[in-house]
Design brief:
With 345 residues, this protein is an alpha/beta fold. Helix content is 20%, strand content 24%.
Length: 345
């Protein structure tokens, strides 16, 4: 059965490889990492892939026994052989996010496993596969191998039992992308994606933790996804960060997809179903109720007054309200952005 997905820019997830390790600040609150260490920690595909760090007191003193620690990836990876040929059994064409609970190009993943994944993707041309990595250098080196297509041909019979047939190279149905959360990580990974052969090259700027100048005028990607962080410990996203990437994409004709605000909705943005948020009033220290809507003749209304709303500020002090991912929605300045690459239209 297909693993349908609630991720806004895909239809299903395929997890032939699970497991990862933290490589940059965007990994800190990884939903897949938390899931692997909690609800799925005894599932055969996730068991033993996370650890719970020991709590430490101030300055390395005695452990704080009351402090809860979240599970983190331990660097181990797993090939889920039962799931490897899933896409070959899915007849209805769909967008498939590859390794949503890991990184296909993680340093611990053997080349043979990556080759198996690419072979299945080649043998399932009815689907479009979306691969995201934070390890752009390894992706570039693997995909640029001059003998890769020959290796795929040699491996083909293992999965399809029929003659190999590839109509184009790079594979027309494989999109390759990098994720980045801030300018530093974008600059570190940009060269590798720019020089990676792929039918579609895209960026996932999620969670967005700072402003980014993509320098789109030099090498234009085929797609840009932007989103804020959700879940426990989420960090807020500034409105101007998202606006800037929207405008950079618009000026260069790059499809722009705004995935979500995440946990926090900034002042001035539209709360779906209510209206534009003007501000808040403290209920108790650190907790607020929101004021929204209103007209020149009617005062704004308020909501969540019964339990209050978390408040957080971006690094430059802009105010945001913690209403949760579902309530915050995905309207940027009142508009839903669903841009997709030309290949998907």
């Amino acid at each position: 059965m297909a693993e349908t997905s609630t991720i806004e820019w895909t239809d299903a997830t395929w997890n032939p490889i699970t497991g990862c390790s933290i490589v940059s600040p965007g990994c800190t609150n990884c939903y897949a990492m938390k899931l692997a260490g909690t609800r799925l920690k005894h599932h055969p595909s996730r068991e033993g892939l996370t650890i719970v760090p020991k709590a430490r007191g101030a300055e390395g003193g005695t452990p704080d026994r009351d402090r809860k620690k979240s599970p983190v990836w331990n660097g181990k990876v797993r090939l889920n052989t039962d799931w490897l040929d899933q896409p070959l059994r899915w007849k209805r064409p769909r967008m498939i996010f590859v390794c949503a609970h890991g990184d296909l190009f993680h340093e611990s993943v053997p080349d043979e496993w990556i080759l198996d994944v690419f072979t299945v993707m080649a043998a399932a041309p009815q689907h479009t596969f979306q691969v995201l990595t934070k390890r752009g250098e390894r992706m570039h080196d693997f995909v640029s191998r001059p003998d890769l297509l020959e290796d795929i041909y040699a491996n083909w019979y293992t999965f399809s039992g029929s003659a190999p047939e590839v109509w184009s190279w790079p594979l027309h149905n494989v999109w390759l992308g990098c994720s980045a959360e801030d300018q530093k990580r974008y600059d570190e990974r940009r060269y590798w994606l720019d020089h990676t052969p792929a039918a579609v090259k895209f960026w996932s700027i999620e969670p967005m933790l700072g402003p980014i100048d993509m320098k789109i005028e030099f090498v234009k990607p085929d797609w840009v996804i932007v989103g804020g962080e959700s879940g426990d410990g989420a960090r807020p996203m500034h409105t101007d960060w998202a606006r800037s990437l929207r405008d950079q994409c618009a000026s260069s004709g790059v499809p722009f997809f705004f995935k979500q605000w995440g946990e926090y909705l900034p002042v001035g943005q539209v709360l779906p179903g209510f209206g534009r948020v003007h501000g808040g009033t403290a209920v108790v220290p650190g907790r607020m109720k929101l004021h929204y809507g209103g007209t020149p003749t009617q005062p704004p209304q308020h909501l969540y007054a019964d339990r209050g709303v978390d408040v957080a500020a971006t690094p430059d002090g802009a105010l945001t309200f913690g209403v949760g991912k579902k309530a915050a929605g995905r309207l940027l300045d009142g508009v839903e952005h669903n841009g997709m690459p030309e290949a998907a239209r």
